[in-house]
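pls design
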């Protein structure tokens, strides 16, 4: 497998909503709490997985730092929902969860586009082009709505599910087998 960390990160993202619903139904844990904690785990794994792909070092670090910061933000949001602390909720949602979260998400999208253009090949590249095109268009729509005084939540909240598409692609990209071709310098 090319990146087991990328594979499991993608699984966390894709199973976040069903897992949150199951935890509420069977354990009584709020959907919001479970979903944020699942996203935190997914971003933490993604922060490590960025090193499994062959991308320029500075772009890799952008992916690592943005995913790490998002993991911390979502962890704080999940914990604040769990313990119901007003100060922590304010920090997690109002201070960190507004513009900073959006900006960090845009940096992660930048890393995903770079991974697509630099390191993806074959059928998964086609899937990546489709997924990332949709997400980039969604981001343009989101910024356009914001510029016009609305938000994506107000105009088309259901479209936010499309932000999961890159993780479908990352799941397949991470599952690819690594080519173990011997370098010419080692041939005899």
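designed seq:
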């Amino acid at each position: 497998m090319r990146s087991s960390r990328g594979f499991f990160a993608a699984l966390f993202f894709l199973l976040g909503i069903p897992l949150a619903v199951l935890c509420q139904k069977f354990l009584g844990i709020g959907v919001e709490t479970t979903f944020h904690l699942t996203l935190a785990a997914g971003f933490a794994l993604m922060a490590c997985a960025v090193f499994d792909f062959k991308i320029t070092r500075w772009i890799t670090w952008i992916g690592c730092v943005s995913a790490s910061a998002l993991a911390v933000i979502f962890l704080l949001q999940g914990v604040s929902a769990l313990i119901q602390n007003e100060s922590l909720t304010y920090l997690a949602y109002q201070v960190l969860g507004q513009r900073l979260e959006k900006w960090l998400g845009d940096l992660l999208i930048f890393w995903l586009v770079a991974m697509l253009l630099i390191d993806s090949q074959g059928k998964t590249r086609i899937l990546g082009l489709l997924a990332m095109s949709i997400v980039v268009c969604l981001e343009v729509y989101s910024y356009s709505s914001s510029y016009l005084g609305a938000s994506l939540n107000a105009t088309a909240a259901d479209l936010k599910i499309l932000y999961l598409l890159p993780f479908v692609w990352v799941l397949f990209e991470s599952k690819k087998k690594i080519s173990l071709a011997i370098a010419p310098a080692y041939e005899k």
